[in-house]
Automatic annotation (TrEMBL):
Species name: Streptomyces spirodelae
Protein EC: 3.2.2.n1
Keywords, comma-separated and alphabetical: Cytokinin biosynthesis, Hydrolase
UniProt keyword annotation of Kinase present: no
TM stretches of this protein: none
PANTHER family, per database record: LOG FAMILY PROTEIN YJL055W (PTHR31223)
Protein name as it appears in the record: Cytokinin riboside 5'-monophosphate phosphoribohydrolase
Length: 174
């Protein structure tokens, strides 16, 4: 399975890096490939290292203005002209999407993928890995959207939340 991971490009506390490393190890051990933003920094690097060390393939989808920080030893590295093309290609190459902890870049990627799913433009499963309750606020917000009629489909059909990497992969059947 090609699993697209959106996650932070920042250096983070071990509560986040340990969980990301564990998830990446499972992904690699089970023979899946990682589709990710291609950079060798922060949590993105932790995940790519973990997948590669466990024997998984790395498919990087970088973007022209970040070409200089693309990981040199990925199995594949595609460089798109802009962020919009990059997101489209990441989704295109993925069988499923997992959202790890992140900032505005991660949120941008995740919400676009959810919006496309909401409109039936794809049916790829999306799981949010809620390490240390990082996404409790988002989960609560989305539950409110559902309860108050802002979502045209059940929230559970749009996205599911996992507490750890094992559960995330279980939800994907991966
Ligand atoms: C090493 C440097 C920059 C590297 N930055 C990024 N490289 C690749 N992809 C990135 C980068 N920043 C954002 N992205 C994409 O958004 C997500 C991470 O954003 P966040 O705001 O950190 O959550 C990630 O999934 C990428 O696809 C120079 O210092």
């Amino acid at each position: 399975m090609n699993i697209c991971v959106f996650c932070s490009a920042a250096e983070l506390d071990s509560v986040y890096t340990d969980a990301a490393r564990e998830f990446a190890g499972l992904l690699g051990k089970r023979g899946h490939s990682l589709v990710w933003g291609g950079s060798d920094s922060g949590l993105m690097k932790v995940v790519a290292d973990g997948v590669q060390e466990a024997g998984g393939r790395l498919i990087g989808i970088s973007v022209e203005f970040l070409r200089d920080v693309a990981r040199p030893d990925a199995d594949e590295m595609i460089v798109t002209a802009d962020l919009a093309e990059r997101k489209a290609l990441m989704l295109d190459r993925a069988d499923a999407v997992v959202v790890l902890v992140g900032g505005t870049g991660t949120l941008d990627e995740a919400t676009e993928i959810l919006e496309l799913r909401k409109h039936g433009m794809h049916a790829k499963p999306v799981v949010v890995l809620n390490t240390a309750g990082f996404y409790d606020g988002l989960r609560q917000q989305m539950a409110r959207m559902e309860a108050e009629g802002f979502l045209p489909i059940p929230l559970a059909d749009l996205v599911t939340f996992a507490d750890d990497g094992q559960q995330a992969l279980e939800l994907l059947g991966a």
